[in-house]
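pasting for ref
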Amino acid sequence: MFANAAHIERLKPPGRRTFLPWLFMLSGDVQALFKEKTPLPWLGGAGAAAFVALYVTAIYTSLDERRRHTRAPLLALAGLAAVTYALGIGYAGDWLLCFPLLSLASGLVLRGGSRPLGPVILVLSASAGIIAGIRGGASDSLTVSYGTVLSGLVTAAILSLFETVAQLRATRQELARTAVEKERLRFSRDLHDLLGHTMSVVVVKAEAVRRLAPKNLEAALGQAADIEAVGRQALTEIREAVTGYREGSLATELDRARSALDAAGIEAAVRRSGPPLAPQTEALLGWVVREGVTNVVRHSGAARCEIEVRGGMDRIRLEITDDGDGVGSPSAAGPGGAIGGTGLKGLAERLSAAGGSLESGPGGRRGFRLVAELPVDTEDAMEPEVEEARTA
């Protein structure tokens, strides 16, 4: 089945010229007109010319995507039906082969959508059978009726199959494009969060080195060693982020947050309680700690920052507050507490996709507050509760 589908996908759909050779079915009737073996040959010739013109119009307009859903194909089909009935009733004989051609055109014009292709073909088949039975015989009636049904249904089925394959191909390309865009967005968020935090720590520690060097060379060398360690860790994390396998540890991010805050001269208070968390939950909360602390160091002007992780049976809550000037990041909170800024917007989207939430805004009269919540898996909640409290 899959091999047949792949073969069909490689084939080109029938074009306009594909259906024109079927007009040679009427070559015997046209010859009879020229040999004057048909009564009123001029009238029969006019009917044949009108049939050919209307048939070609119906075929071309139904296969033109710009005109397919206009009235032109339907009007051409209606005219073709009128001429077909006139020739069939007036001349009978081989002119009854106009009915299969009319059914073929109907399959092209009425295929797909809500147009009544089935009833139309049944009416045409019954009409062709009745006219052939009256003017010819039972054998002619069955042959013409069967040919009328078959030509219309087969034509509509083949074209619908090709159109479905084309739609599936377009859908597959759109899904691939969307997947690439999502992956690019994910990677840009990871890179922003990763480098934003790391570069902030490097800048803060470099400033500490500059301040301490004239007074305390040993302390300055310690800060320089920290810069080297942060740089090496950043290189490792970037490699892991590029390969898509990076999973952050919440405990590691809390330790880094404490180090960054200390280097920036901000008093850090870190508290954690609750059950062990799933790796994915730890990774998400680690990103929140990284982004939140980066914003505190960069923009808050705070003297103290508190980070609290509190887990329950159903949800885990992370709250970061500071006593700064109320700015957690540029445009961090819009009207109504809306999340703003590239980093916080990305975090809000990530947490929302995992069933959580992210809120940010002024923390009372002074300072800024960032709160993240995520659901806790029931299997994780079964573990014994672990409490950890550390205050600098």
